[in-house]
Design goal:
Rossmann fold; alpha/beta; 22% helix; 175 residues; 4 helices; single chain; three-stranded parallel beta sheet
């Protein structure tokens, strides 16, 4: 979706954060959700590759990734059961999302390979509505690796992972 669409993650980040800090526009690298998803994914790979000075296909090492947690355990736009969850040979993918929680719009997402290469990954989870899925993501032991939620597949290669939950979101944890 375009950045001025209320469903735009970039639009939300711009309005809540970027508009209030002195970050040069050249340092903001948004995904162009208004383009066809395959074109947008390809352009974002090119931008990441250029920005990080990488060889094509090399993994970027983001200093910090902030992640949320969807009500079904999805992260980024990687939803349980979608084939893009298993696309570890790509940096960015287009997602034609039509299962789980809406809105059902075409999306562009970092892959788990890109996410897991980050130096620091921080999950920010708030509200009682996330308590059940947060407990499941943090405490449930899937019967097989393929049964893991996308959020359970976040395992930094050489980085650090931090979960920050408010009291309501932590309400179902067995601490």
């Amino acid at each position: 979706v375009p950045p001025d669409d209320p469903r735009s993650n970039y639009g939300a980040a711009r309005d809540a954060l970027l508009a209030h800090v002195a970050i040069p526009e050249a340092n903001v690298h948004r995904m162009h959700g208004e383009l066809p998803i395959d074109v947008a994914a390809e352009r974002y790979v090119e931008e990441i590759t250029r920005t990080f000075g990488l060889e094509m296909g090399a993994l970027p090492r983001f200093d910090l990734l902030w992640l949320g947690l969807g009500p079904d355990g999805h992260i980024c736009s990687l939803f349980p059961g979608d084939p893009q969850v298993d696309m570890l040979d790509q940096l960015v993918v287009g997602v034609q999302h039509s299962t789980g929680p809406g809105p059902y719009v075409d999306r562009i997402s970092l892959t788990l390979a890109s996410v897991n290469a980050a130096k620091v990954i921080v999950f920010l989870i708030n509200g009682a509505g996330k308590a059940g899925i947060a407990a499941r993501a943090l405490e449930e032991q899937p019967t097989s690796p393929d049964d893991r939620l996308p959020s359970q597949r976040v395992q930094p290669i050489e980085g650090q992972m931090i979960w920050m939950l408010d009291m309501a979101a932590a309400g179902d944890l067995h601490l």
